[in-house]
Every structure is written in structure tokens, then in C-alpha cells.
Amino acid sequence: MKTAGVIGGGAWGTALALVCARAGLATTLYAREPEVVSAINETRENKTFLPGVVFDAPVRATGDLADLAAADLVLNVSPAQHLRSSLDAFRPHARAGVPMVLCSKGVEQGSLKLMTEVLNEGLPQASPAVLSGPSFAIDVARGLPTAVTLACPDEELGFHLAAALSLPTFRPYLATDMIGAEIGGSMKNVLAIACGVVEGRGLGRSAHAAVITRGFAEMTRMAVALGGEAETVAGLCGLGDLVLTCSSPQSRNMSVGLAMGGGQTLEQALAGKVSVAEGVASAPAVLALAGKLGVETPICAAVAAILAGEMQVDEAIAALLARPITTER
After folding, report:
1. Does 328 score more than 90 pLDDT?
2. DSSP 126
3. Is residue 113 flagged as an active site residue?
4. For residue 40, what are the contacts with CB-CB under 8 A and spacing of at least 6?
5. Stated pTM of the model
């Protein structure tokens, strides 16, 4: 593999484009925003979404998806709720069998589809893979050590993708279970909002640890119900990503919870943010999917109710603490 295309010029897409370029791939980054394209090409910096990181490897930005047509692999970093439209736009330029690495995390509203299911419908000729794990865009962009899960049902393709993206500071671990990798990435964003609420309300580190642990149980139940493996969720793409996203205000999702736990409305919590907090859109979809599967997800349900304005923060906390005594499972 010699060339890479990246769809999505946000912070994470830009960081992954730098990974590709540092790994020696001729890299083209597609961004919708003309100002992002011009800034990258003229100043070697994404001033809108990743300011302060001057590129140390060559990345060409473009506003034309046709420029990604010949890429040996494509990383799609579109926000989860926009993945389908990005696939529709790329379809005329996609060659059969192109490896498509899905890097967005969420459940599609309405259809309740995982991102691989959306890909299968929108671009069935692509060869799917999922990249997920504890990885803040700014850390990856700065070349700080990071490990992620690369899930691909085609083990040989997965090995070639991992080899193409691997760096001394960016280490992919291989898996074949895309469902487990996707559920981990989708639900950790919702649970990070819950942890932010706990911190914003000043409920203490013990409560924070309890939310992470019981949230992990919800994540595992969901993955297994969908046909994924508990072992996958216990790795980087599940537990690892959950710990990171639930433990730092640097997390876009946790920062939303922090603001709401401190008394702000959702609109106030989102004001001024240029990057997407995926958990806000994913929460109702995760809850609906859990209901469809008959899986109990009380913490995710509480987050969805708070975001929808159906419950106040203190009311949701009281409801969780009043649940019947049961075994830990």
C-alpha cells in the first residue's frame, strides 16, 4: 500500500492523515470546508480544527472526493450521523474492493445501524475495517504514543492495513470482531457524558469509578447481544477507550457532561464547539437499539433522558441509585 485517502478534515481526520503520511503513504485529505483545504495546503496547519500542530509530513488537502479515487486505502472519518451521505458522495469514485477503514464512532439515528452496516448499504463493494481505541486527536497529531484496535474480518487485509499505518508511536492491534470494536466506540461517548455529569456535580471519584465500571457492563451486554465478543470490548476499543474518554475534560463528550452537571443546558454546553460530540447524537440511538435488543442500559438511558430534557440531572442520579438491588453482571 502506497497511497491513502482520508475523508473528513476535522481534528481526528487530520491526525490520521498525519499518521498515514508519517508512515510513508502519499496522503490526500478531503475536507468540506474550503478554508481548511487552503490552510493545510498553504500553511501546513489545520487552523480550524487542530490549531497549533504544524504538519511534519506531507499531506495534500482537497475539496474534491475524486482525488481519492486511486487511493490504496481510504479512512472515513466523517461524523457518524453523516457517514451515509459521505459514502453516497464517494460512491462514483470508489473502486471495487477498496479497503474502507471506518474511524467514526456511533449508531445511526433512525435506522439504528452500526457504521459497518451503513457502509454495507452505502458502498457494498468496499472491504470494511474499523479503527477504534483510546486516542485523542491532539496526542496522535503530536506523535505521542498511542495504541488502537484495527478490526477487519479479512485477516490478511487487516495485517496489510496495520502494517501500512503502523508507526513507532502508533500501534494497531489486530482483531476480526468489528461489532465489538464498534459498540465500544459508540457507547463510550455516551458514558463519557455520564462521567462528565458526575464530575460536574461534584459527586466524587468513587461515583466516577462506578459509572465507568457499570457502563462497561452495559457496553459488554450490548456487544454480545449484537453478536460481538466480550473479549474485544475488554480491549483497547472498549475498556481502553472508555477509560480515556471518561477521565479527561479534553474529551468532547465528557466536557458536555461537565457543563450540564454544572447546571448548563445542552445548548449552552455545545455553544462554541467546532468539533462534534458524537455521544449527544448517539445516546438516543443507543437507547433505542438497546430496547430493540432487550438489553438493560440504565446509565445510557439516564444520559439520553437528560439530553432530551426529560429528566433533570439530580432526578436521573436519584433514579439510578434507587434501582433494585441485584448481582454484579
Report:
1. no
2. S
3. no
4. 9, 14, 29, 31, 46, 55, 59, 60, 61
5. 0.93
